[in-house]
Design brief:
The structure holds two protein chains of two kinds.
Chain A lengths: L1 H32 L2 H5 L1 H11 L4 H25 L6 H39 L2 H7 L4 H40 L3 H11 L2 H29 L4 H31 L3
Helix pairs in contact in A: 3-7, 4-5, 4-7, 5-7, 5-8, 5-9, 5-10, 7-9, 9-10
Chain B lengths: L4 E12 L2 E12 L3 E6 L5 H8 L7 E6 L2 E2 L5 H8 L2 E4 L11 H12 L4 H14 L15 H12 L6 E5 L7 H18 L2 E6 L2 H7 L2 E6 L2 E6 L1 H5 L4 H8 L15 H4 L5
Parallel strand pairs in B: 3-8, 3-9, 6-7, 7-8
Antiparallel strand pairs in B: 1-2, 1-4, 4-5, 9-10
Helix pairs in contact in B: 3-4, 3-5, 4-5, 5-6, 6-7
Classes of the chains: A mainly alpha, B alpha/beta.
């Protein structure tokens, strides 16, 4: 019976997806439990901060600049219709700090640093490095996973902040320098309208959540990857797809909780 | 008084799901000896090593190392036991994000409070023992297969283990590296006073260096003896294996249907 067969296959997929969520949660809790080493020997975390955070800076800065420039251009075109070009600074800053900064930076982080983490850990597993570490009586979750996790959690809000800051300059460059919006009103209206707690803090909370989720997905996929070439490549793809969808879904939920259409 | 054997394996059984992989294995590894476990790929050799290292739990029987039953240890007990063991993996399993020096220093830094100056000297001594002191600043990707295996060997003996396990140490090596690695295994065993177990299917190289051989097939021990006994054995399986004959108890053909029928020549 093809119908029964299809139903069975859907059922199996759902059950396996639920299992994976459970396993990922257990993995996350284990990572937290074995995080002591990451702080006691902070140089391990710093090394990972360099490869996840610092190495992602270029792509974050370039993308932030262009997104800010596009916002400046599009914002000016729209605001001009209502004669409120002076609010361009507000629009650029709010758009970046509340939404585009955390979301786009997290998407870029997932594809730049997340995929690298998955591939690295998947290959470590495929070449028996993780088993070797266990045989040397060293816990791989404490030694390999936890420092990478904290590096991801720490660097994500900083990268998002960098993205927004550079984006504001991109908007300033296009709006003020190229188009000629009044510089005073660009900055002063921005200063008046952007609230630290409502806007900036909420943006930081968002990027902190995204950083946690993306890093856990990337590390779990790598750690759970079948130890073959296809296994690692499949896991890398899953990291990018799952974390991108997770970022967008969580963004909606967090925005709904934080701003409630006020 | 410690028992004569460092490792005792008694009636060891293990099954993946319900498929038996090891059945009724009994082995003794006397202290200071170099033991080989030989057999075809998939006969359960590596599974046996994993039991000794505590990575798998037996379905029946036990592995006792230095008087302690491995699968009854809790995690801290198991980790304490593993610090006294070393394992060389098939392709070395060097940490690819660390230099040769850091690989060898890894366990010293993780498990001891030795000052960095002392670690420096120890690392260079271990690398010197495998003839690769000059490679300490290289990354694993810059080493040849044989060199990587020797660096991994230096890392394995970093903390002077009492039991050293080798998982296919000769796989994929050129003839010179093969002799070098074989000779190192023997010399390190003697120098450290350790007990070593080599899982391999390289008959000629291992018969040159080991003290005792166990032959495994389909999860059971089919023959055992000293290298001389093995070389002169008249048992079909051992003869086929030692001399690399194509046909014998291990058939050339994978079991299949009737050949004539498969070629549509049958009725």
């Amino acid at each position: 019976m093809p119908v029964a067969k299809n139903l069975r296959s859907i059922g199996r997929r759902v059950v396996s997806a639920v299992w994976r969520v459970g396993l990922a949660t257990r993995f996350f809790l284990l990572t937290l439990a074995y995080s002591g080493t990451s702080f006691r020997r902070f140089h391990l975390t710093i090394k990972e901060l360099f490869s996840t955070g610092v190495m992602s800076l270029i792509i974050i800065i370039v993308a932030g600049l262009f997104v800010g420039m596009v916002l400046g251009l599009q914002g000016y075109e729209t605001l001009k219709r209502y004669g409120s070009e002076s609010a361009l600074g507000v629009m650029v800053a709010l758009g970046l700090v509340r939404e585009l900064g955390p979301v786009v930076a997290a998407l870029l982080f997932a594809s730049r640093a997340g995929s690298a983490m998955t591939a690295e850990i998947g290959l470590m597993k495929a070449t028996e490095q993780i088993t070797a570490m266990e045989m040397m009586a060293v816990n791989p979750i404490a030694r390999i996973v936890a420092p990478r996790f904290w590096a991801g959690v720490i660097s994500m809000p900083l990268l998002a902040a960098m993205f927004s800051a550079v984006g504001v300059f991109g908007g300033y460059f296009v709006g003020v320098i190229q188009i000629g919006v009044d510089e005073g009103s660009f900055w002063s209206q921005m200063q008046a309208a952007v609230d630290f707690r409502e806007d900036i803090l909420n943006g930081v909370i968002k990027s902190f959540v995204f950083g946690t989720v993306v890093t856990v997905i990337a590390l779990f996929e790598g750690y759970d990857a079948p130890p073959t070439a296809e296994g690692v490549s499949g896991a890398t793809t899953r990291t990018v797809v799952t974390s991108s969808l997770a970022i967008l879904m969580l963004d909606f939920i967090l925005t709904a909780i934080m701003f409630r259409g006020n | 008084m410690p028992s004569k054997s460092l490792v005792e394996i008694r009636d060891l059984n293990f099954a993946y799901d319900k498929r038996p992989v090891l059945e009724g294995i009994n082995m003794d590894f006397p202290r200071g000896k170099l033991i080989a476990i030989m057999g075809l790929s998939g006969c359960g050799k590596t599974t046996l090593l994993r039991h000794i290292g505590g990575a798998l739990k037996p379905t029946k029987g036990y592995v006792k190392v230095d008087g302690q039953i491995i699968h009854e240890l809790d995690q801290s007990g198991l980790y304490a036991m593993r610090r006294k063991m070393g394992m060389l993996f098939q392709f070395g399993a060097l940490f690819t994000d660390m230099s040769v020096y850091d690989n060898v220093a890894f366990q010293m830094r993780e498990h001891t409070d030795l000052p960095e100056e002392l670690i420096h000297d120890l690392v260079l001594m271990k690398l010197h023992a495998v003839g690769l002191r000059g490679t300490h600043s290289l990354m694993p990707s810059e080493l040849s297969g044989g060199m990587a295996r020797r660096v991994a060997l230096a890392r394995t003996v970093a903390l002077d283990p009492m039991l050293i396990m080798y998982d296919e140490p000769f796989a994929g090596l050129d003839p010179i590296s093969l002799t070098v690695v074989g000779d190192l295994i023997r010399r390190l065993n003697n120098a450290l006073g350790a007990t070593s177990v080599v899982v391999t299917h390289d008959v000629q190289e291992s018969l040159k260096i080991v003290d005792y051989v166990y032959f495994m097939a389909n999860g059971v021990i089919v023959a055992e003896g000293t290298p001389d006994e093995i070389r002169s054995s008249e048992r079909d399986f051992v003869r086929q294996f030692v001399h690399g004959e194509m046909d014998g108890p291990v058939p050339f053909h994978y079991p299949g249907g009737d050949y004539r029928q498969d070629l549509a020549l049958g009725v």
